Amino acid sequence: MYQIRDVPGKGRGLIATHFIPRGTRILSGKPTITVPEQYVKLDEYKQIAALISEHVDTLNESQRQEFLALNTTHISSDEAQRRFEIFRTRSLPASDGHAAIFLHACRISHSCDNNAQKNWSENIKRHTVHARRDIEKGEEITIYYMGVRRKREIRRQHLQTHFGFICSCGLCSLTPDLGRESDTTLEQILSLDNLLEQDDGYGAWFHPLRRLRYVDQQVRLYNEHGSDDAIGPGYRRSIFPVSLGSLMGLNDRIQQFSLEVEGTRMCHGCGAKATSLKRCGKCLLFWYCGKDCQVAGWDNNSHKADCKLLKDADLRSLFTFDWETFLDDIQFPLGVSKV
Ligand SMILES: [Zn+2]
Ligand SMILES: [Zn+2]
Ligand SMILES: [Zn+2]
């Protein structure tokens, strides 16, 4: 699927040998050297450097050569320090609180508009890399080195300080105007992330709609950000077929007209409360006195549009799902609910 080749100006990188569709697992690798993450951050690096160097000595010849070839821009004449620098700049997260060298995954270059996604999988105890958008034959496979997406200046500074290179990826090379636009969008996405984080834990239980709004807004921003193709089609997805605002409106109408309160329901056509209404035969959610009220609801009270939306089994299930009793995560498709 890929070959390790020289990439001008970057050292060696992974190049796709054929078209890789989004979602494909590109590689999964076992750790070659594993060290507690906190060690790598310590100021007293000499001991750690010695420890890592010892690990490197235990590798077989070809592994050692591959490790040493993980290029780093910190050139040191001290062999232990050089090995430490390779580890510090190229290692990836592994099992709880550990950093590790994965000979292939660690060779993947950084790009701020990365086409692949790295992830430590605790289940299989391997580091996996998946295509986060379609990757063309001959394209370099890239991942994102930093944890959080930040604006250009901060990104570039961080990459230079911690990884020793100046990023010249598609996003970093945008014209000043487009760069500013991208920065503004990223900042908005980030502030929504912060809001979601503050909310974490019980937030999902107490403010599910608020969280949904944040996420919906983020998806919209990602879509906008991707519109110049810098981010790629991977982000172009939407959660719902309509805007969240319209969805909330529909939810309000369902609450008002679908639920039975003390044996009566409200007619969606005329608003009268009655015990013997007939429901819409298509969506089964709205109730009417008779034909005239149904026509009124259809033509004047937006049921024409609502009823069409409610044909979607997942969407309809969202409104009819018994949220009070569910204990675990729910998965789409929810399937057709029994009303
Ligand atoms: Zn960049
Ligand atoms: Zn009526
Ligand atoms: Zn209907």
Automatic annotation (TrEMBL):
Limits of the SET domain: 1-146
Source taxon at top rank: Eukaryota
Alphabetized UniProt keyword annotations: Metal-binding, Zinc, Zinc-finger
MYND-type domain ranges (all copies): 267-307
Keyword Zinc: yes
One Pfam family of this chain: SET
GO MF, any single term: zinc ion binding
Gene3D superfamilies found in the cross-reference section: 6.10.140.2220, SET domain
Name the record gives this protein: SET domain-containing protein 5
Organism: Metarhizium album (strain ARSEF 1941)
Lineage, uppermost ranks: Eukaryota, Fungi, Dikarya, Ascomycota, Pezizomycotina
